Amino acid sequence: MARQKEYKEEEVIKKAMRLFWRNGYGNTSMQQLEKEMGINKFSIYSSFGNKHGVFLESLKCYKAKVNTMFEKFKNNSNGVEDIKQFFYDSVDLCEEEGNEKGCLLTNTYNEFSESNDALVNEQMTSFMGNLKNLFIEKLRMDPSKDQETINKQANYLVLAKHGLVAATRVNTPKEIEDYIEMTFKNI
Amino acid sequence: MARQKEYKEEEVIKKAMRLFWRNGYGNTSMQQLEKEMGINKFSIYSSFGNKHGVFLESLKCYKAKVNTMFEKFKNNSNGVEDIKQFFYDSVDLCEEEGNEKGCLLTNTYNEFSESNDALVNEQMTSFMGNLKNLFIEKLRMDPSKDQETINKQANYLVLAKHGLVAATRVNTPKEIEDYIEMTFKNI
DNA sequence: TAAATAGCTAAACAATCGTTTAGCTATGAT
DNA sequence: ATCATAGCTAAACGATTGTTTAGCTATTTA
């Protein structure tokens, strides 16, 4: 043993995540990462391998936040009301710390959708796409809904969620609340 | 006078637009532009000044498409039904030529939202934000709606439109149709 | 206290970025 | 036919990209 690190990886990766969240992957440089993470390039490379590695670790960090929300969502048992709460929680997560950059996962999906980045794709598909199934589960708790209605409403809610994420960037809290209430008015 | 150009600027800029649409600005290189536009770097610079100029001209080209749709929307006079048709037209525009990259203006807004690019910001604000007013105008055609209802519904429709644009990237035509019908069920 | 070693600093790396330029080609005008 | 000129080709520009490395610093261990 010799010197010990002057930083904690869990802390600097949070800072990296916020930078990627604001700028996206392609528009974030190693110079910016150095400044934002508060450590030298050498330290970044020794801890995370390369820029790509920093990004993947940032995604994991973000997904941990999302996972907490998902767990809460799954563990509740109030049907549609849970979905509505999930919408409100999503807004809180997208807006934390004054951030107004929507959802990092959605942004990443958009930025990498044309590329064939295996690692990023893997990280993405593990989260995108199962949202609809979660909604379907919750909607099934209402015995008065038939299967066709459930499918249509689930699909509707997935796309409504997209609108919501986009909304967190430019709309006021009141407008967002109005949107959510309106969305669930006839569900 | 001497030689005449071997390309038409209106044609090569369309090709540039499609590339920017697919990749975004930052992730598009001059090399890619050369290949996609089918002309040399020199020709690109002599026609459009620089990469930034190519992008601004591409935005104008895209906005021309959108403008056509907006004009149709404004000139009709069937209230809410016009808005619904506008949603369907939006999907057609976002998906033309097998493209699945959402709306170029929305994407550009997202990519440049953290930067302070005066020219791009100008091009953006001239289109974003007035959508709500257009919706309000149409909703006013229904005398049974009071002002508060109109405001809420207009806000809801703006965000629903965001969901729709995101939807064109990953959802089937049937799912998108379901979403639109559901959105207008209680408007 | 001294040797060993892991972390840090800062300079340099090759590759690619957007951009410019020198020289060649082709065409309109005299 | 020839001169002038605008367009094209392709090489090179400096700056910045992500990445590596040599040399110094500080701390643990014996």
Mean pLDDT of chain A: 92
Kindly report the CATH topology of chain A. Tetracycline Repressor, domain 2
CATH level-two architecture of chain A: Orthogonal Bundle
How many beta-strand segments of chain A?
Answer: 0
Low-confidence stretches of chain A: none
Count of domain modules of chain A: 1
The largest interface is: A-B, 39 and 39 residues
> Helical segment tally of chain A?
10
CATH class of chain A: Mainly Alpha
Largest sheet of chain A: none
Keywords (chains A, B): DNA-binding, Transcription, Transcription regulation
Pfam families (chains A, B): TetR_N (PF00440)
Protein name (chains A, B): TetR/AcrR family transcriptional regulator
GO molecular function (chains A, B): DNA binding
Polypeptide structure, described:
Two copies of one chain form a homodimer. With 187 residues, chain A is mainly alpha-helical. Chain A has one domain (9-184): Orthogonal Bundle (Tetracycline Repressor, domain 2). Chain A is built from ten helices and no strands. Chain A binds a DNA duplex (30 and 30 nucleotides) through residues 1-6, 29-31, 39-43, 45-46, 50-51.
